Amino acid sequence: MKRTGKVSRGQKKISLPLAGRFFSFIGKPIFKGLLYLGYLSLAITTKVEKSLSSHKPKKINIPKPSLAKAIKPKTSSSSKVSSRIINTISFSLGMGLASMAFVYFLFPILKDLPSPQSLANRDQSLTTKIFDRNGKILYKIYLEKNRTPVPLTDLPPYLIQATLSIEDKEFYKHRGLSLTGIIRAAYQNLILREKTGGSTITQQLIKNALLTSEKTWQRKIKEALLAVLVEKKYTKNQILEMYFNEVGFGGATYGIEEAAETYFGKHARDLSLAEAALLAGLPASPTRYSPFGLNSYLAKERQALVLKRMVEEKYLTEEEANQALAEKLQFAPQKTEIFAPHFVMYVKDLLVQKYGEKMVETGGLEVKTSLDLEIQNSVQEIVAQEIKKLGNLHITNGAALVTNPKTGEILAMVGSKDYFAKDIDGNVNVTTSLRQPGSSIKPVNYSLALENGFTAASLIDDSPITYQVPGQPPYSPQNYDHRFHGQTSLRIALGSSFNVPAVKILAAFGVKKMVQRGEEMGITTWTDPSRYGLSLTLGGGDVRMTDMAVVYGVLANSGIRVDLNPILEVSDSQGKILEKNSQGKNLPVLSQSVAYLLTNILADNSARTPAFGPNSLLYIPDRPVAVKTGTTQNMRDNWTIGYTPSLLSAVWVGNNDSSPMSYVASGVTGASPIWRKIMDQLLEGRKAEDFIVPPEIKETDICQTTNTLPCRGCPMIKKEFFILGTEPQASCSGQWVTPIPSPMISPYYPQ
Question: Do both 586 and 493 map to the same domain?
């Protein structure tokens, strides 16, 4: 039964549901204590005064008073006592009024404070829906209407111990709030800059069941007050039982009984120690630590941490913990209907980062995404079919990403050949995983060259060279075909993906500049330039496919970087629009002319012919399509990335465990056939789009042999594009060529 406290304020009465209860529990004791303190102070003062009046002090020499002191009237002992009585009463009344003011200040917070009794009577949560761009439902995130409560006595002891160890080891010692936890959280948040919480299990129960997920000091005060009240009303075991039946374990799974059924297909009472440790670690962040989530390996790391804490709390021995950690977990099949699961989990993770776990899973959000389910299904089928053909090459998996580079919209995200494939950890999203890009990263390097004196016609000597870097073994780059090609134009070197010229370019400008340029164009994983060497331009630095789509989008967008934009609109359960995104964030990175030259080279079939032949899968007749391949030298990753002004497709093949492929030929096998089939379907029925030629670009006739202006009667003339002011000034008769910058200005010295 609810009790209502009422406070008069002039002629107006304010009804406050729990104000009276709070005042009686907190305010009254404080107020009474202050009055008692006043009475005690008065008694002590009176007693001291009586003692002083009856005591004859020793005679001492007193200095002659100053004028100000001399004219000050003398005060009798009785007036001194009266003055001190008045001061004591004033102090007591002042403190009492301050206490009342403090309580009154809390009234706006307390007026909406829910009753601890409402823990058993809560509103049902709402379903969050994720749609594709055309309104087709991809996934529903919701709570089951009927929970299966389980008594605490039915749970295995090690499940309770695991939960206490990782969530609240002082649960049976505190009274709702943990001073140790608060201090530890404050230290880690403010000093170490590590995001962590100091909430007790009681506070977590209140936050999940009675309060919203808003991150304000008012909510924290409510949470703290309710924690004290709940601890006063319920026993520790009752609180712990409610926690186990309330806490979320990801998606529609709430309560430990449903969690055991969802993840392991069994009752909670039948969980093993290893299974209990994994489930105990989920509530802190069900999306992040889910074994079916974006980074499933984090679930195992979290399980290991739970077991370590159990050892520290003396619940387990080291041997028992190691045995549990070594146990191979058998997860139950996931039956939830879901379309484009890699994309859905990717979007859900973004939503959780922005709105919080509870809002996403219970807030009734409606999320319109950029995905086109029709394109998604088509791309998924192509990837699955083509990977089947590559089994004899020890290629077990593939991934693809389709975007609109103008807006950053993700039209399709295929993270593996099959999300539910057990043989390859199909739920791992390769489009967001770290992989090496091979030669597909070279345009980042060549953008620096074209900004600093090089042209598409500049000749680079493709010949043997060895670099000696202090503290590292000698580095001698090799071409993919294990041959050297002599004086080669930048156009041919990039189009045919020769390695040696690319390394020489990087040596000329330095790794640090390439790392900086990569970050500018969209690479988010190159955080420490000191980790990389000259092999960076051949794919020696891990990247994500999502980042590579942004990098190539810069070229498609004439030098403007447009970040990925997978979420078009989010509205709440009342239809209020929370966010609306027409396109990703824009940032100028390259000049239009440099971006065009790179695109023109990548779209030039003749430039890639020396390496791929004139009729490779990279060549799409009557279509301006720029494309680049990449294969790591250890044969663990194979890429093809290509684009038109409004469509971009990136494809990867390899193995999730990073084991090498037995064979792959860029442009013939591996990623290229998948890429070509995707592009053919995307471009079918579409009007051909030309890349915009900037006004700073000039087309000039040059000698095909020397890449200079042709001399009179030159028999081999070709056309080349130059940025105004960089076109050659001498003819081939002068044998003039654009020199490559001296390696001596580079931090790398050839031997």
Answer: yes
Task: Give the residue among 81, 90, 147, 99 at the shortest CA–CA distance from 120.
Answer: 147
The residue behind tokens 């239009």 is 592
- Tell me if 347 is assigned to some domain: no
pLDDT band at 6 (very low <50, low <70, confident <90, very high): very low
584, 703: one domain: no
Q: Are residues 408 and 498 in the same domain?
A: yes
- Residues of the chain with pLDDT > 70: what percent? 76
CA 375 to CA 371: how far, in whole Å?
8
Which domain covers residue 295, as residue numbers? Answer: 144-336
Report the distance separating Cα 683 and Cα 305, nearest Å: 50
Distance in angstroms (rounded) separating the CA atoms of residues 325 and 323: 5
The rounded distance, in Å, linking the Cα atoms of 166 and 308 is: 9
**Phi (first) and psi of residue 540, to 5 degrees:** -80, 5
- Residues 647, 680: Cα–Cα separation, whole Å: 12
Is residue 613 located within the same domain as residue 501?
yes
The letter for the amino acid at 200 is T
Please say whether the beta carbons of 584 and 563 come within 8 A.
yes
CATH no. for residue 463? 3.40.710.10
What average pLDDT does range 306-311 have in this prediction? 96
E strands present in 362-433: 366-369, 397-404, 409-414
Are 512 and 575 found together in one domain? yes
Distance CA 455, CA 720 (A): 9
Residue 184, phi then psi, degrees to nearest 5:
-60, -45
Strand partners, 731: 709
